[in-house]
Design goal:
two-stranded antiparallel sheet; 1 helix; 8 strands; 117 residues; mainly beta
C-alpha cells in the first residue's frame, strides 16, 4: 500500500531539491532516504509509492526500494531516482509520520510547476 509523507516547510523545497534526483532529473545512481520516527508502515512493499506533500499540496512520489529500520522508533523509506511530479485537486494539511494513500490514483495529474511551490 502506498504511503504519504510531509516535507516540512522549515526544511524548504529548494534545499530538498538540491539533495538530488528530483522529479525530471536523471538518476545519479545514489539511493535516498526519508527518515521518520515511530514504527514503519506494515502494509507497504518495494515498488509501491511514497508520496510527498509540501505546503498543503501533493507534489509527487517515488517508488520504495526498501525500509531501513534502525531501532524501535527510527526508520527510513529508501528510494532511487525515479521521482514523478504529480498532484491532485485536494488540499492536504501537513502531518508528522506517514499516512496511507486515501485517494484513487485516477485523480493524479502531472504537476509541471511543482518546483515553484
Amino acid at each position: 500500500m502506498d504511503v504519504v509523507v510531509t516535507l516540512p516547510e522549515k526544511f524548504g523545497l529548494s534545499r530538498w531539491i538540491a539533495e538530488g534526483d528530483a522529479a525530471g532529473d536523471p538518476w545519479s545512481g545514489q539511493l535516498w532516504a526519508w527518515h521518520l520516527g515511530g514504527r514503519p508502515p506494515k502494509n507497504i512493499n518495494a515498488g509501491e509509492r511514497v508520496y510527498v506533500v509540501y505546503k498543503n499540496h501533493l507534489i509527487g512520489y517515488s517508488r520504495l526500494i526498501r525500509i531501513d529500520v534502525f531501532n524501535e522508533s527510527r526508520y527510513s523509506l529508501v528510494r532511487a531516482g525515479d521521482a514523478m511530479a504529480i498532484s491532485i485537486n485536494q488540499e492536504i494539511k501537513g502531518f508528522r509520520g506517514f499516512r496511507y494513500r486515501w485517494w484513487d490514483r485516477s485523480e493524479e495529474k502531472p504537476f509541471l510547476d511543482w518546483k515553484l511551490q
